[in-house]
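Dissemination and training. As part of the outreach component of the grant, students in the summer workshop were shown how a complex can be specified as a set of sequence lines and then modelled as a single object. The example used during the hands-on session is reproduced here so that future cohorts can follow it. Participants entered these lines:
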Amino acid sequence: TQLLEQSPQFLSIQEGENLTVYCNSSSVFSSLQWYRQEPGEGPVLLVTVVTGGEVKKLKRLTFQFGDARKDSSLHITAAQPGDTGLYLCAGAAGAQKLVFGQGTRLTINP
Amino acid sequence: ETGVTQSPTHLIKTRGQQVTLRCSSQSGHNTVSWYQQALGQGPQFIFQYYREEENGRGNFPPRFSGLQFPNYSSELNVNALELDDSALYLCASSLDVGGPYEQYFGPGTRLTVT
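and obtained this result:
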């Protein structure tokens, strides 16, 4: 069974601080996605990483895929209250499904 | 471009009843996947439909069943509802089953079983 462990599960920081969320597995994934989910809504795709060691930047968000394609990280620089939400990583497990982590609930305090 | 839509938004059912949830995929997408998201958890894969055929199933009992129609819209049916079926049910569409498996989610249906 392929599992993704996210850490931390909860994170509350002040506006302007930096943070990193981790997504780890013992399994290899062909690709990994990061989603953000607001209360009462479905997850919204932020980025897909495919190649081991790949780094992608989306404004103040930096995503990295581990060299062995077993782990990933999301780094946010100068966090803003609008970054508040549930961040989910999901690994592609074959052609059929995504395996999701349990999520990191991020709160940015003004 | 029309995104993924789901209906109804909220639903309350009694234990033992049956429920049907509906999903319209994003235009141009021919693959629909269904997920169950319990409170405080990440989504769990239920099954996927590709061109009207089931194309993979997660660890859910047979009372969870589905359909995909020629226009690629989809239904999730759950029979003999149990209290633990209370969750947010998410539908996601994607284009084909090839990589990198990017899926686009609808807003979900919140099912409460009492």
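The first strand of chain A starts at residue 5 and ends at 7. Students were then asked to discuss how this feature might be tested experimentally.
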